[in-house]
Inverse folding.
DNA sequence: TTGTAGGCGTTATCAT
DNA sequence: ATGATAACGCCTACAA
């Protein structure tokens, strides 16, 4: 026998296909308990699985979500994906994952792909703010979507975000409280909003204590280790700063490496604070003080938000709070 | 207007739906160039997208693959996923990713989910060897599948694997050549075949040079950092070995940490060789010597294999070769 | 070269 | 409480 259909089930159970369909869809009314059980038994026996194509054809639902992230190999994202996947599966959705590599080109292609696959919704971690043409495509296709991590735009779209300004503030405050007065910062790309948010929060904390952050102590990185490694050299050699705030953990690793090469001891000679608290950093020696975000939970929350949208409920963005995790890489400066 | 159908296109272009269908499916014969162009133009104009449900209903194909991995948060897997995804997408397939957490329970559930979603094929990184009930489910559902990384079983199923024995051998050989004679090994779980393969290859290399590997110098780990960290303590404190082969990079990180705590310098006092060459380790100081595998390419290859299966071609497993990457963590032992 | 019509497996709308 | 039947949108013999 090939695949069983409700027709087959109906025949075998001696009922109509309508009845089988009712059982399948848990319609409670309009059926005797006996009939229901009879049908269920047959379905059980043959391990019946309804054809999703046929179903989708009429219901217009695929029970599938799409997730677009920049790059799963970026250690920030696996946790986020897990959160999204676990929550999606608990709500009986499958998840199609796409990596955009932060290329508008690919974002578009995948948006198109997901539209073709007729996903019921999309969770989107965009390049930065949502590209206008992406936006148009999304609205034309009328696919519900939520943003995550990036692309915050208060009024326009709902999503799940981190309070990056606060994160930066926590980092700055922590270093100030330790007694640091000459502090450097390695930022993410200026073109990315969350990167600027972190810097601004950081500066605000310093300013509150009257500490200056001269441009020469701000280095623009790209969230990658390599560039942070190279660009931190000047800053470290001039010995002008006693502490550095790296706007993500991966760049903090780059600083670790350069410090080690230059014979600068962490934290004795130099304190470092990272951002994200990705799993990777448990391998660092000494352990990295960082600003933690609950990426996994953010992923779960994004799915909840999306499901609410599907149910036409009013949705508002969810803002997560970062927390400071003090470990070994930050301490008071030497006198 | 709601979604366009081929019927709408047909009307607008003044042809029959058959003709539209033909254009859609790139049937070359049986149509004048003019007609084709006319239809294409209309499709272009309205940005037509065929309904995959309707299509699948008749073709029985979803243009979707499923990928089951233990855990995307394990740093070995993101690269593998990327390989699978990139190759799948280039062949016009979407990818549903599932994390089994190495639980047979979840493997089953996801297998079921993928079956329900009617994926065209599955790429499976099983717990170890393929569970008999999984096997049964797979064959009952008649879903083509290939294994990847784990579950090698020469005769039974094809897949993409690494020559782990060779990898272990390379590690052993390298340390021997550096002059080490007292060497420790931290293995993966004994229950996992590839873990034993690595150990066996390693032992073979030592044996060739008449070097013993007493049981006291073999520690069974679980591929995680924590356990490797704790369990390596004894070995390191007794100062019995001048080198350690950790059967994956993550465990090597654990050893780094313990060595640091005990004031043991790497590589002066202790050489370390890892396995995998995961991206994470670029953060380690000193840089880790390791056995590299081309995980990304293995992912791509798995998709190729699967596609060949779909085309009913004869398929045989693909075996990848690991390579030794010498960095800073291994050197000759002190006299 | 082009068109007609039946069927794919469900759900949903009416009947009974 | 249960059943017959028309969609849903596409593909594919078979006709013309």
């Amino acid at each position: 026998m090939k695949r069983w259909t409700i027709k087959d089930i109906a025949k075998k159970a001696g009922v109509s296909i309508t009845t089988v369909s009712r059982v399948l869809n848990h319609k409670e009314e309009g059926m005797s308990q006996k009939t229901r059980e009879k049908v269920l038994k047959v379905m059980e026996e043959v391990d019946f699985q309804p054809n999703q194509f046929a179903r989708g054809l009429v219901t217009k639902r695929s029970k599938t979500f799409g997730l677009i992230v920049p790059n799963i190999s970026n250690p920030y994202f696996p946790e986020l994906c897990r959160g999204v996947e676990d929550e999606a599966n608990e709500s009986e959705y499958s998840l199609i994952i796409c990596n955009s590599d932060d290329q508008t080109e690919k974002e578009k292609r995948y948006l198109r792909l997901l539209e073709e696959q007729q996903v019921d919704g999309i969770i989107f971690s965009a390049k930065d703010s949502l590209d206008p043409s992406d936006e148009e495509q999304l609205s034309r296709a009328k696919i519900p979507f939520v943003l995550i991590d990036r692309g915050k735009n208060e009024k326009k779209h709902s999503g799940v975000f981190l309070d990056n300004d606060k994160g930066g503030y926590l980092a700055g405050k922590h270093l100030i409280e330790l007694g640091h007065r000459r502090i450097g910062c390695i930022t993410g790309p200026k073109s990315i909003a969350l990167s600027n948010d972190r810097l601004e929060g950081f500066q605000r904390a310093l300013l509150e204590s009257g500490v200056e952050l001269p441009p020469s102590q701000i280095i623009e990185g790209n969230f990658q280790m390599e560039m942070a490694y190279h660009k931190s050299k000047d800053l470290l050699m001039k010995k002008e700063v006693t502490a550095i705030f790296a706007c993500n953990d991966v760049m903090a690793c780059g600083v670790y490496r350069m410090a080690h090469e230059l014979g600068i001891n962490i934290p004795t000679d130099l304190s470092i604070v990272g951002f994200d608290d990705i799993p990777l950093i448990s391998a660092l020696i000494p352990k990295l003080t960082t600003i933690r975000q609950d990426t996994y939970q953010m992923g779960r929350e994004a799915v909840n938000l999306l499901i609410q949208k599907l149910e036409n409920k009013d949705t508002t963005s969810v803002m997560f709070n970062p927390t400071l995790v003090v470990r070994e890489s930050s301490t008071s400066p030497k006198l």
About this structure: Residues 15-19, 22, 29-32, 35, 54, 56-60 of chain B lie near DNA strand C (CB under 10 Å from a C1'). Chain B has a mean pLDDT of 93.
